[in-house]
């Protein structure tokens, strides 16, 4: 509340001001010790709770980074946003709407009840059910080809070749019975294309892709720019696919807390259980944050506080 809001009406303020505000956010929240590091995927519990990185990418390609912004962590649910953008690009607006859905469940990301309460609908691409069904929509005749589409697409968003953290992939594969159950349930309602277990395997790999907070800022900025990566200058998805993704991020990106997030921060965003957050400022750029301690909905606490601070200080709230 003690942050003076920028009065600028156009782009972001100058580089020095952005760097100063990132540093102020980092200093303000680095000693906060709230939140719990995820452990339902066993390997994630080994993360250092003190890690804290912030990054901002502008649409002119200029990058600002601070703290642990180059530490690699698994992208987890943040992949859902970019895989959905790839699905929109491949299948189009009406098809993803009809096959997946775009409404919030009001329930946690791995809810089985949400499927049952909605006649077998995967509901939206940001919860696990919808994300698994979305992965199945990517181009490819086999699971291996679909995986190739996922990894190539995520790498284009980041502007560099990304890879899977094999330890995370193995750890989640050994403990993802719930996602396999969700995929079987979708299959029973005829709401999943392809072999359920093969698709869950691709989804599990997708969640284990390693990124940094800086990568997230570049990936988000690609959506902010209407689908063109501002660092490589290459188009990754159509402008319509980028817009459709931002709308679903606004309504569903923070699961059952999406309303609160939008009320406080006013930006489309996505979180992941390893502690990453991407928040997108359409037409301006994106923030990437990373810090492992989470709230009860699975969102990084330092990350969300930093996004709130920076949204106010930089005047980013869309509303
Ligand atoms: O499927 C899962 O449960 C994980 N791979 C991803 C969940 C996740 O990141 C939830 N977000 N906060």
TrEMBL record:
Question: What's the EC number here?
Answer: 3.5.1.2
InterPro entries membership: Beta-lactam/transpept-like, Glutaminase
Q: Does the keyword Acetylation apply?
A: yes
Family annotation (SUPFAM superfamilies): beta-lactamase/transpeptidase-like (SSF56601)
- Which residues are recorded as binding substrate? 77, 128, 172, 179, 203, 255, 273
* One annotated GO biological process: L-glutamine catabolic process
| Keyword annotations from UniProtKB, A to Z | Acetylation, Hydrolase
Q: Which reaction does it catalyse?
A: L-glutamine + H2O = L-glutamate + NH4(+)
Superkingdom of the organism of origin: Bacteria
Q: HAMAP family this protein is in?
A: Glutaminase
Instruction: Give the matching PANTHER family.
Output: GLUTAMINASE (PTHR12544), GLUTAMINASE 1 (PTHR12544:SF48)
Q: How does it assemble?
A: Homotetramer.
Q: Which family does it belong to?
A: Belongs to the glutaminase family.
Q: Name the chain's protein.
A: Glutaminase
What organism does the UniProt record list as the source? Answer: Leucobacter luti
